[in-house]
UniProtKB/TrEMBL annotation:
This is FH2 domain-containing protein. It comes from Aegilops tauschii subsp. strangulata (Goatgrass). Belongs to the formin-like family. Class-II subfamily. Residues 1-122 form the FH2 domain. The lineage of its organism: Eukaryota, Viridiplantae, Streptophyta, Embryophyta, Tracheophyta.
Length: 122
């Protein structure tokens, strides 16, 4: 997600739209936005109540930046990543860290073990 240039350009376009809508207010010169603000794209309607900001964004992208419309191809791993349960991942990391600590303890203890026998060298 972070490496998708197309998604980055779309987000920049959304920021530009938001700044244009909020021009003249404290929010009119934002340098970023929270991801939950994306939900407002579908809720923010034009004065005639026929078009949302999401509709306008899609129309703008289709007309001016059509090369960005296939941004989903940059996100092929997103679905698989969304299925990873963070709790299980944290548990696995904890188990790996415990195993690493044991290896470090064994390594430290092996310093005092002495020379390796000739039979083990071959």
């Amino acid at each position: 997600v972070k490496e998708s240039l197309k998604l980055r350009q779309i987000m920049q376009t959304i920021l530009t739209l938001g700044n244009a809508l909020n021009q003249g207010t404290a929010r009119g010169s934002a340098v970023g936005f929270r991801l939950d603000s994306l939900l407002k794209l579908s809720d923010t309607r034009a004065r005639n109540n026929k078009m949302t900001l999401m509709h306008y964004l899609c129309k703008l992208l289709a007309e001016k930046l059509p090369e960005l419309l296939d941004f989903d191809k940059d996100l092929i791993h997103l679905e698989a990543a969304s299925k990873i349960q963070l709790k299980l991942l944290a548990e696995e990391m904890q188990a790996i860290n415990k195993g690493l600590e044991k290896v470090e303890q064994e390594l430290a203890a092996s310093v005092n073990d002495g020379a390796i026998s000739v039979g083990f060298r071959k």
